[in-house]
Design brief:
alpha/beta; D-Maltodextrin-Binding Protein, domain 2; 430 residues; 15 helices; 3 domains
Length: 430
């Protein structure tokens, strides 16, 4: 090749490299042109949903390029469906991350065939809290203590495989000998609580204490639920007199198994991006998450809602996940058996088809506490909007119910069979 030919070839190669957007784009340039979808593995109105939407309102300003973060609910199977989508179909270029159930991290380790994702390869961004879960009984249920779960038993509600609501009843039955029965298939934790209030179930075993306080503190204030036990590796400081599951276990081996099962509580609300996201964008997301946890505006928003804030960094979660997968095989096998065996658990599955109204708002009443709207067929409907249990989004962002105005076109999600005045679980307006 001649000197001129070599120069031309090198120039062409240099032009191709410079023209490649992947080679040339900085993190700031990328996020200046792209928004981020934050998927939530549960239905609107619960603790996971509240944590995700609050983060979405503040984290974008800490990411170079200041992208808008758009929360999207994608419930199903206790967030296993979303976990699988992260591995298979959702974009891995940094425009997607998700909040999934903390218990999902153990499902592939246990060999659950539906779990088609690899936690060790995923990019953990951080957690807004570490958690202590509790087991509660409705006040009209004749269950006053954890011992009653052994002698009498209780019907509890669940959201799907891998979720705390479904895993913990198995563990309690298999390790402690309780007599819990499970009705599962509810879209989210808030739906389980509504089912308890309606008398469909008697309690819930797998309820973050922080969510109980922030989302349904009225149940505690009005003595409508009894807290039977705490499920984590350490007690919550606010309820020191409630028994801890570790203290109930009778043998050291049982305590080892329970420690394995409840270790994910330390990564209470885990935000995660797919495997394969470019390293500089993962670093930017982690740094933005950490900065948000110290942001005074975010902290004020969290406190205003009564949410728990005990952040865990992405690096810490990554290390915790690797440690779980490095435990002795006999303990893993025993924890798997305790978490997945249905031999001692009676299960009933329900299919909940939520009512979704395509609506045009005609009136916002009492600062958005109730809305009136018309349906496509011209009929009229009203819905109650809770300040804590109804997720409100306007123009792609979480918003306050007071900002729902007449003339807006909205999608109103209600429990099945709802009549006028029923409480909406979600309102999404253009």
């Amino acid at each position: 090749m001649t000197r001129t030919g070599r120069h031309l070839g090198m120039a062409a190669l240099a032009w191709a490299v410079c023209a490649s957007p992947l080679a040339a784009q900085t993190v700031e340039e990328f996020y200046s042109d792209h928004n981020i979808d934050l998927y939530i593995g549960y239905s609107a109105g619960g603790g996971y949903d509240a944590h995700a939407r609050t983060l979405a309102r503040h984290m974008g300003k800490h990411i170079p390029g200041n992208p808008e973060i758009i929360p999207r609910n994608r419930e199903g199977a206790g967030s296993m469906l979303l976990s699988n989508e992260l591995a298979a179909t959702l974009a891995n270029d940094g425009t997607v991350f998700a909040l999934i159930g903390r218990g999902q991290v153990l499902q592939p380790l246990y060999g659950v065939p539906e779990a088609q994702f690899k936690p060790r390869e995923m990019n953990w961004i951080g957690s807004t809290s570490n958690e202590v879960s509790v087991c509660i009984a409705w006040h009209e249920t004749p269950v006053d203590s954890w011992q009653d779960l052994i002698t009498r038993g209780m019907i509890v509600g669940g959201t799907g495989p891998g979720a705390d609501t479904d895993t913990f009843p198995r563990v309690l039955n298999n390790v402690l000998g309780t007599k819990l029965r499970l009705i599962t298939g509810y879209p989210g934790g808030s739906d389980v609580v509504l089912a308890m209030e309606r008398g469909e179930v008697e309690g819930r075993c797998g309820y973050s204490y922080s969510s109980l306080v922030s989302q349904r503190g009225d149940l505690l204030a009005e003595n409508k639920v009894n807290i039977l036990m705490q499920m984590s590796t350490a007690k919550h400081p606010d309820i020191p007199d409630v028994p801890l599951v570790m203290d109930i276990a009778e043998t050291d081996r049982d305590r080892q198994v329970l420690t394995m099962v409840f270790s994910p509580q330390a990564m209470g609300r885990p935000f995660v991006a797919p495997a394969g996201v470019p390293e500089d964008r993962v670093a930017a997301l982690r740094a933005a998450f950490d900065a948000t946890m110290a942001d005074p505006d975010y902290i004020a928003d969290v406190k205003q809602q009564g949410l728990d804030l005990a952040p865990v960094s992405g690096a810490e979660i990554q290390a915790l996940v690797l440690d779980m997968y490095d435990q002795p095989q006999d303990i893993i096998d025993a924890a798997k058996e305790a978490s997945t065996s249905d031999a001692n658990l009676e299960i009933t599955e329900v299919k909940i088809d939520m009512r979704v109204d395509e609506a045009e708002v005609t009136e916002s009443i009492n600062e958005g506490r109730e809305i009136a709207y018309t349906l496509p067929d011209g009929s009229s409907m009203t819905a109650a909007i809770s300040g804590s249990r109804t997720a409100v989004s306007i123009g792609g962002q979480g918003d306050d119910r007071a900002n729902i105005k007449a003339g807006m076109k909205c999608q109103v999600t209600l429990p099945p069979g709802s009549e006028a005045g029923a409480e909406a679980t979600e309102v999404v307006c253009e």
